[in-house]
Every structure is written in structure tokens, then in C-alpha cells.
Amino acid sequence: MARNERRLRLDQPVDTRRVRRPDYDPETFGRFAETFARFMGTARFIGYMTVVIAVWIVWNVPWGPDRARWDEYPFIFLTLVLSLQASYAAPLILLAQNRQEARDRVTREQDRDANNRAQANMEFLAREVASLRHGLGEVATRDYLRSELRALLADLDQRVERPSQAPSEVPDPD
């Protein structure tokens, strides 16, 4: 109903130039372009093109059948076909490169984010290790405790050997 009301309104211009364009999925076309560009960059494609061109030339030179020749010596039609192939190949290759560049950009951003997180984690861990070192500096170590226990044991041994000494006469270890 809103669509009919829009058509009946006289205060708005009517769009008379509606162009119906074919609907296509750009991702499907992009994948096709990448696949084609990847194929064109292989030795197999070069081999196929070499065979096609060699057969074309051999067929159309004076050694080939007279009636079946369709492109005489300057090979104008072969030049046209190769130019047409190049005119389609170049944009497909550029499209594939643009898609690859977009993927690389996303990968770089993800790597940059991961590196930033890793750096923040490393800085946090470095601060934690520094605080642990600082805290351990105030903690008695095993060697220190052993030396203190040995000193106390020696002091007790001395007390056992001299029972006549009064506890007030015992020297203070500090």
C-alpha cells in the first residue's frame, strides 16, 4: 500500500530510468578471478598456450591444408585472439591481486593486534617478575636459614657444655 501511495504522490518526482542490472555474487566472481589468475601463472598454462599457438601457426602456413586455413601469414586473427585474451586476463589478475592485498591487510592488522597483546603480556610479566625479585630480596634464603640454625645449634651446644652459666649471661646474637 505504501508503494501505491508513493506512485500517486504528485509532490515527488517519478524515477523513470530504472535500469535492471544482472544480479551476481561478487565473491563468486572474485574466487573465479583468483582461480583463473592462479592458473595463468603456472607452467601448464604456458605449455597449453605454446601448443595452441604452434598448432595455429603450423595449420595456417603454406604447409597446412589450403582450404582449411583461416589465418594467413601475418596471423592477424591470432594477434586479435591473443590481444582479447590479454585484455580479459589483465583485469582478472588485478582483481585477484586486490583481493589478496585485502586479505594481507586483514592478516597484518590481526598480527599487529596479536603483537600488541603479546607485548602487553610480556610487560606485565616483566613487572611481575621484578616485583617477585623485590619481594624475594626480603625473604630469608635456605643458606641464610641454615647458617642461622647452625649458629643456634652451636650456641645450644655451648650452653649444654657450660651448665653453670646463667641464662642472663648468654650473649645476644643480634
TrEMBL record:
Entry annotated with the keyword DNA repair = no
Its keywords, alphabetically, are: Membrane, Transmembrane, Transmembrane helix
Tell me the superkingdom of the source: Bacteria
Membrane spanning segments where? 45-63, 75-95
Q: Which InterPro entries match?
A: DUF1003
Q: Which PANTHER family match?
A: INTEGRAL MEMBRANE PROTEIN-RELATED, MEMBRANE PROTEIN
For this entry, the protein name equals DUF1003 domain-containing protein
- Say which species the protein is native to: Solicola gregarius
Lineage, broadest ranks: Bacteria, Bacillati, Actinomycetota, Actinomycetes, Propionibacteriales
